[in-house]
User: Fold this.
Amino acid sequence: MAAQKHLSPKAWAELLLLGLIWGASFLSIRIALDTIPVMTSVFHRVFWAMLVLWLVVRVRRLAVPHSPRVWLAFLVMGLLNNAIPFSLMAWGQLYIETGLTSILNAMTAIFGVIVAALFFKDERLSRGRAIGVGLGFLGVTIAIGIRNFASFNLQSMAQLAIIAGTVSYALAGAWARVTLSDLPPVVAAAGMLTGSTLLILPITLVVDGVPSLDLPLITWAAIGYYALIATAGAYLLYYRVLAMAGAGNLLLVTLVIPPVAIVLGAVLRDEALPPQAFLGFAVLAVGLLILNRASSRN
Assistant:
């Protein structure tokens, strides 16, 4: 693996902006869920983001792939990186706080390291990475609360759903590396969102019925934010930051997201997290920093 890149001030600024955008997305999704069902909210997210990214592809005059193999890869990617995690996390947010959702979401980086070590020979689980992974699991255990493992209720199911979503994200990363690495990132993202839209639409129609467009302004504002800014816009920004900062440094964005989500949830929805959630995030953050440092040495 190449040495980790030095972060320029511009890279730091865009990395922090990406963290702010994604951190606020948890609040916007929760606001939308006050008025629309889970699958409808997910459909809005992937459909509008898909349209924006295909518009970007057209403006940049990028080639659209025609191979059935590539479109099958888009479909699988849409399932793993959008349909499954977006649905599980949106449902989970109905029963647990916005801030806790964002903390559990940080396990994406931990599972990403594990999945990469399982599938790729050049991503071995070094001692430093193993320590980071171990601290990540310890942090999430603390955040959830050890006592909660003894009971099983809707809140427990919601927490498990969100963690399952992070596993799906990690698998998506491995799938993208194997099948889509030769495509321009914007084309890959647009194709992925097309795949997820094709998967989500029939489920939405069966479960929720035809999505209504007669929604309150605040709901449309929330949808506009999480679909256009936190999904389509964030994908474009993500690949810019990846090019400037490298994959190892991109882990640092995971440390920005939960504080943003926690503050917004507290200020705008009067959410209060128990002390163990903050302690758990602190332990998880140390694990992520160790992973970042371990990546710089490989």
Notes: The chain has a mean pLDDT of 90. Residues 149 and 156 are 8 Å apart (CA to CA).
